[in-house]
Amino acid sequence: MSRAYRISVRESVTNVVCAEDHVSCELELLGILPADQMADLLAAELAQKGFERDGDKARRQAKGVTVTVDLKSGTVTVRAQKSEEVEIQGEKTGYVYHPGESKRREEELRKTLQKELTTQTHTKKTELQKEVTDALEAQLGDLRGELDGAVNRATAQALKQRAAQLGQIKTITEDPQAGSLTIVVEV
Amino acid sequence: MVHSVSRFEANLLSILYAVLGDGGGGPWMSKILQPIPQPKCLSRDTVRLIEQALAKGMSLWLASADGWRVERFLRDEKPMSGRLWERTSPSDLGMAFSRKSLEFLIWLTAKQPLLPENRWQAPLDALTVGDQLLILRTLGALTATPVATRWFAEPVFIKQPLIALFFLDAIADERSELKLDFTAWMHGSGAIVLECLQSELAERWVRMERAKRQIQRPELMVRLGKLQQQVLGALTDAAEQSGRRDLCRFLLMALAELTTEEASAREWVRSLKVDHLRLADRTTFYKTASAFLGFAKQLRRWTEACAATGYFDEGYQAAQLWLADWERYDGDGVSRRALAMVKNISF
């Protein structure tokens, strides 16, 4: 009676999986004042929202999401990234009926196991990517409103400064609800 | 007057009358799908009937499209107002059909157009404006049939600029690149045809844009967006070079209808299956979805150029006509809304 020989292989794979996502848009910055002055006004408004200035850029990091605003061009980039060390282990068992076949069988089992571990690593990466994309998407809704508000306030400040350059400001009427600003200037 | 025609000639004339009329499903479709052998030649009576049908049918179609409207278009670089026949001298109202029209009709009657070996061939530069108009009408009458689906994949048809303008979404099923030359449509009978089709073109492009709401496949959206950029780019380049921006009025009309205060560009991509993609990758699809809306930027550049055209500069009156169109369709509001929609589509 022939005997069956049991072959077992174990593999362990450690990988660092990374996921990144980003989205960009342009803020509408009117050129009421020279570009560097507009940049300063925008930076001041963004600072009140937790942004830190770094040369021509303002940056804020929160909940794994980094928002970068180019103060001169108005380009906003929102980026989220995450990396995780993932250790995946697996075991595979097979049988041979002739001892001479055991090496070959072991190779086959090892190759199959390595493919499965690679697939599992890929699955982990996909899950991590989804986490990152979901985190990014969750931030976008409020961010748009925040940035538009900062741009509007910076624009209002720029209009006031420009009006003051033209002549004597008589009255300034602001309606934040309607988003309107009326400046009466005596030239 | 009674004319005697053969069975083949009767079929040919039925197809032609149906194409020039309102098309419809009727028995004329079966005449296309069940062809009969072509005779050695057509009788003189039949050729005369074909000539009459083309002359009257096309004239009636163009007149009832926008020809009857009192509109302003350029004539010798000056705006002229009136119905088509009031603002155009009789000698300029003619439209030529070559023997290619006859060959096309004979082919349609004698060959089964769904068979791969039965391909109609004709170099584009051999087709007159009238020939291309006949083919456009035929395609329009055959829309949503297997024949049209077949033709939308064939270069001999889709390289005709007017077909591309009207059926770009159908073409996008198969292609993502199209090189077109609209020069022939910027003067003479070609320009007159475009003048008469402004409302139809506007309506067609509004329908095409609204249909994007049902597109699920991202690759189809990308193909359509790329084609729109290519076709509109070729059209506006030709219009700018020949000083006929007025022929692109339908773009303003379509944008005005699409960019109401309540409109949101997110509607354009609501069916797109991109949830599994990174936001960075979704942006590519969203941007191509807004290709037509983004053309408002080009139209605004035209307006700025026209506003800067001085009284003594060449093209002053043509510039004033474009500015009048811009004001008529609230170009400032339309372009502001369109470009805001483009900006907000992915953020």
Could you explain how this protein is built, in words?
The complex is a heterodimer of chains A (187) and B (347). Chain A has 187 residues and is an alpha+beta fold. Chain A is 42% helix and 40% strand. Chain A has helices spanning 35-47, 102-166, and strands at residues 5-26, 52-54, 57-62, 65-70, 75-96, 168-175, 180-186. In chain A, strand 6 (168-175) and strand 7 (180-186) form a beta hairpin. In chain A, helix 1 crosses helix 2 (102-166). The longest helix of chain A is centred in the C-terminal third of the chain and has 65 residues, at 102-166. The model of chain A has no long low-confidence stretch (mean pLDDT 90). Chain B has a two-stranded antiparallel ribbon. In chain B, helix 12 (218-241) packs across helix 14 (279-289) and helix 15 crosses helix 16. With 347 residues, chain B is an all-alpha fold. In chain B, 58% of the residues lie in helices and 3% in strands. Chain B contains 17 helices and two strands. The interface between A and B is small, with 15 and 8 residues.
